[in-house]
Design a protein that fits this description.
CATH topology: Growth Hormone, Chain: A
Largest sheet: none
Shape: globular
Structural class: mainly alpha
Number of helices: 20
Radius of gyration: 22 Å
Number of strands: 0
CATH architecture: Up-down Bundle
Distance between the termini: 19 Å
Length: 452
């Protein structure tokens, strides 16, 4: 069996693809964070109630729910290449339109559509990246994918703070997402289709052309090992052995992002409730975002050394304890509060990168995009509900109880990971996607149809 593709060195193509693919999470982090700063001006201008604030904050998450599932299905049906660019064009247009809204209803509608575009990009970009990346680099590159979420969030807080002093600055804040969106669209032009997907569709000549272009003229379909995972439809994911994997990914993903998205949608408000108000709240949010980025970078460095399972378990454990401490000591000194937030940000990094490593490793090519999209969609239900409830919880339960609830949700992710998290370190995509209990078969190289 040939290992040319799985054991290929990390090339400039792989690095460029990883960078272009990370545009989706960058925009996701930017869009979900900038709204937290913009709400400082939007709330009094539109006289928003706590409930309406929650709807504005959760609208993009609701859009991600629909976009991720539909985008996953479309990318498995029509390929990764076309949708890789089209979805972000829609995001650019809707971002610009936000600058012209005059009521909360239209703002909610546009943010729903923006979330749809961001959600669609996740299964498209991660499937493409996973199917091109050599085994040794798959975990780190997919893990690094999510770090761009925090880069986008940090940039959003800086931009938001700069524009907050302008009259109607919130319009410029929300429209500003179009700038990086357009840059990413232009960079993605010319990205090739996944040869694994082309083979599954019987387009062998095109797959050979892509392999030759990416890996060299000597590489053909004979060097692309066939995945030995069971071929299932999306509907069969729930009814077959893949249902357990889908449940694990959905639950741990939800437990990881519910507290995080709530913090980002209402970061300044949460820090304000912890007696870090005004400009310090926005600066603190940006600083904590940088710590999230640091945590993800540390997790990327550990994902192959430590292994997937130990990394996610320790991340949930210590991140959850940090949130519980915030809930138990909500009146502590401001620097203690920031230190605990920073500790959570660094420690939770392992769960963040595994949101993109596990889903892309645990399902076969035929349904990889659909599985990633479905898991992303289902996890966003809890995230949207959590984000919607944050302003209500702050006003009725108080900051202490709100943070304790966030800690309990995080520790629930620990329980699920201890019970179900597999170890996929060092495995090929086919080996990682194979169901437990299925006899291991030597992967057969694809017959070189284009040359036969």
């Amino acid at each position: 069996m040939s290992h040319v593709v799985d054991d290929a060195p990390l090339s400039s193509f792989h690095k460029r693809l990883a960078l272009f693919s990370s545009g989706g999470p960058f925009l996701d982090g930017y869009i979900l964070s900038i709204i937290g700063v913009a709400m400082v001006q939007i709330t009094p201008q539109f006289n928003l109630s706590a409930s309406t604030q929650g709807m504005v904050g959760a609208a993009a998450l609701a859009g991600i729910f629909f976009g991720a599932f539909l985008g996953g299905w479309l990318t498995d049906k029509f390929g990764r290449h076309l949708l890789f660019t089209v979805d972000l064009i829609a995001l650019v247009v809707c971002s610009v339109l936000q600058a012209f809204v005059n009521d909360a209803v239209w703002l909610i509608i546009l943010r729903l559509m923006i979330g749809f575009a961001v959600g669609a990009d996740y299964p498209i970009a991660t499937s493409l990246l996973a199917e091109f990346t050599p085994s040794r680099w798959r975990g780190p590159l997919l893990g690094a994918f999510v770090t761009m979420w925090f880069v986008g969030a940090a940039v959003a807080y800086v931009v938001g703070q700069f524009l907050l002093g302008l009259d109607g600055g919130w319009r410029w804040m929300l429209a500003s997402a179009a700038v990086p969106g357009l840059i990413i669209v232009l960079l993605r032009i010319g990205t090739p289709e996944s040869p694994r997907w082309l083979v599954k569709k019987g387009r062998y000549e095109e797959a050979n052309e892509v392999l030759a272009k990416v890996y060299g003229p000597h590489v053909t379909l004979a060097d692309l090992p066939e995945e030995s995972g069971s071929n299932v439809s999306v509907g069969e994911l729930i009814r077959s052995g893949y249902g357990k994997r889908m449940a694990f990914i959905t639950i741990f993903w939800t437990c990881s992002i519910v507290p995080l998205f709530a913090v980002y949608a209402f970061g300044p408000a949460i820090l304000g409730a912890l007696n870090l108000g005004g400009e310090l709240a926005n600066i603190g949010s940006a600083a904590i975002t940088i710590m999230f980025l640091v945590g993800c970078l540390i997790a990327v460095a550990l994902v192959n050394r430590m292994g997937r399972r130990p990394l996610i378990i320790h991340s949930f454990l210590w991140g959850g304890l940090a949130l519980l401490a915030l809930g138990i000591f909500p009146t502590a000194d401001s620097w203690v509060i920031l230190a605990l937030f920073a500790a959570y940000a660094v420690l939770i990094g392992g769960t963040q990168i595994m949101q993109w490593v596990y889903p892309n490793e645990l399902f076969p090519t035929e349904v990889r995009g659909s599985a990633v999209g479905l898991a992303s969609s289902l996890s966003r239900i809890g995230a949207a509900v959590g984000t919607y409830l944050v302003p209500l919880a702050l006003s009725t339960l108080g900051i202490g109880t709100t943070m304790i609830i966030a800690g309990v949700i995080t520790l629930l992710g620990l329980v699920v990971s201890v019970a179900w998290a597999p170890e996929t370190r060092g495995k090929t995509l086919g080996e990682a996607a194979r169901l437990d209990g299925v006899p291991a078969k030597a992967a057969r190289p694809f017959r070189n149809h284009a040359l036969s």
